[in-house]
Amino acid sequence: MPASPRWKPACASSKRAERRTRCVRLGGVREPAVDRRTPWRFTALVACALALGACSTAHYAINERAAQLRPDSGYRMQRVFAQDRGDRMYLQVSVSGGGARAAALGFGVLEALRDTPIVFEGKPQRLIDQLDLVMGVSGGSIIAAYYTLKGPDGFLDFEREFLDARLQSDLLWRLGSPRSLWRLGSSRFGRSDVLQELLDERLFKGATFGTLAQAARKPFLILYATDMVSGSRFEFIQEQFDYLCSDLASLPLARAVAASSAAPLVLSPVVLWNHAPASGAAGCGEPPLRGLVGAQEAGRASRRMAELDALRSADAKGPQRPYIHLVDGGLSDNVSARGPLDFFDQFGSVIGGARAAGYRGVKHTVFILVNAETSARSPEDRSPDVPGTLRAALALADIPINRNSDSALAQMRGTIEAWAAEVRAAHARGDFEVFAADARFYLIEVTLGAEPDPAKREALQQIPTSLQLPADDVARLRAHARAALQRSEGFQRLLRELR
Prior knowledge:
There is one protein chain. The protein is of the alpha/beta class. It is 45% helix and 15% strand. It is built from 21 helices and 14 strands. It has helices at residues 15-20, 38-52, 77-81, 99-114, 139-150, 155-163, 167-175, 178-184, 191-204, 209-215, 238-242, 253-260, 288-294, 303-310, 330-333, 338-346, 350-357, 389-428, 454-461, 471-487, 489-498; strands spanning 23-26, 29-32, 89-95, 117-120, 123-126, 131-137, 220-227, 233-235, 270-273, 314-315, 318-319, 323-327, 362-371, 435-447. Strands 3, 6, 7, 8, 9, 12, 13 and 14 form an eight-stranded mixed β-sheet that branches. A two-stranded antiparallel sheet has the order 1-2. It is globular, with a radius of gyration of 26 Å. 40% of the residues are buried.
């Protein structure tokens, strides 16, 4: 029997094969001609997928029920911060929404912190080594989650797998594939679930919040989404999931990022199941945060606690809201400024909140807000035409986001001053337990509007909100982030006082 050939010719010689695939000669090499029926076959596949969509049984991943809530387990801030009780500097970086534009700007700030040498407590180190907390919303959640998972060693991978990749194009192709079209026909599967799959394949490789909990190291990660019904901020931390009687540890990081990025009209809401007990039933137990807040002498009722308690509202049949639907976090807090305010408000004071988090003798409290929001002139303002339906619909999201961000930033600036005054009053009473005698507060804002050159500023603010950008735009954003941070008066004051 003759041996099987190791390769097959480009074109078969049989008449049957010739009828199926016509051969042409290109440059002396025989190649198969394009089968003109291929587009029709693809169209048929798509049509079949749409027709069968009504029969689709695809289902998003359900967040797991927690059998018993325990304050010493799960992805909790106190557990992470307890690993370093001697930390005398609190450094937080918050990255706003804005798609890849925000991710690139946040990436540039983290690069600059990595490349900033300091000597703190007699130890030479990089400023990024003091990073305690990373907050991210929408596009900023991508870099926030990735950095928390990988640390500075993952910078090159993030650049290759996200900043230089074609994530948006790949997402569109995946959404249009017959398999996705079939799954999207199910009422239990949405476009954000497809984004979650792509993010997990490219960036997070199956990592969950349990992965972060096992490492139990700084920085701590907080990602935001927005409750579609109440409009309140939803945090992907165990303290929030306690009110759902749910275990955050098994939730993929990619699902949280997809929820934070679920822009209305473009992506679908992400659904979480509320496993809270029926009225009068024990269920998983009381959320530990209730006892922690109640134990504080200065603690007082806050809007944030009311929002959390509303998730536990139940009757004899179960929770009144058995399912929670999440959309883009930018709708509730696009610059991640309200998070710190609400956290300390739960404990009645900055001293009470810092004490609950486990800090003692803090010298430097640093908040770096990376704001990728744009304020460039809209093209509609230069045309007498009536704006289209899509542009008007997008304005319904843009207007509240920008207005909420402005008020949140103004509140943050005023609150920082109030916190400093509170600490000075405590020092006057002889209380130096939480904040050291030379304690300082810093609010450092990195914005696109900080570019001094008008032409460059206009170019930065014209960069669109999308999941992928040209390499030139990414380079400009990274360079601007580094320069804007260095120009910041608060950042220069921090470096001077560290020296």
